[in-house]
Amino acid sequence: MEGAETIVKREGKCTELEGFDQxxxxxxxxxxxxxxxxxxxxKGVEVNSKMEALFERTSRFFDQHPExxxxxxxxxxEYFSITGKIGENDNEFGNRMNAFLFWFLFDYQLAxxxxxxxxxxxxxxxxxxxxxxxxxxxxxxKHIHSLFYFVKEKKDKIIVKDLYSKQKYSISDSRxxxxxxxxxFFETRVFEFGEERYFANFFIYHPINVRRDIKRCVxxxxxxxxxxxxxxxxxxxxxxxxxxxxxxxxKSIYHFDNSVPEAK
Length: 264
Known about the structure:
Blueprint: E1 8-10, E2 13-15, H1 31-64, H2 66-83, H3 93-106, H4 117-128, H5 131-140, E3 144-154, E4 157-162, E5 168-172, E6 186-193, E7 196-199, E8 204-205, H6 211-223, H7 229-244, H8 250-253
Antiparallel strand pairs: 1-2, 3-4, 3-6, 4-5, 6-7, 6-8
Helix pairs in contact: 1-2, 4-5
């Protein structure tokens, strides 16, 4: 969107575009500051690599067990029928598949056991004595899945706010949001490793010109004390259309106003 502020990186710190006020506090341009920023970024990459490897093993487990492999296929069909189909050559394919794997593992309910796949996999890990994966998954079951927005950069971390709970979180690795619109809402998950918090390896961004509409809907959901997860899936489906049909009125894609025809 023209004129939108974008998060950029200068000398290992996160700032705004020229012409806008800088974040509070001086920039740390020292060698120590740059080294600290690099270390935090490398740690973030390492955490994501561990999670990706874990999800590969999880997916392989469900693929290799006939009683679960059909459910994995059914879950994939359900997820993409809700959020919108996507091809392997699409630029968003990897991002969307990562979002699906998190949804399948933590949110989907297996018809055969009426439990989440993560619980079945934890039982398997306990049986085979895979202590490292067991410890990671047990810790990550209680993570935060919501809509967030960027607040500010502080030292080697970024501060984001959960639109639903209104809680602020300090996220390690200040590079992860570089290039994104500063005021955009985005869906992802926040995990805790040790004393640090990290984003999951997917981001579903929404255009800032529907920010007010999204904020109003989340306020209604919060007031009713409902889960935000169904709304996240709805927004995800809008995001798919938005990426595909840029020439259509955004209000017809992110359809919150019945006076505007919905893009099908």
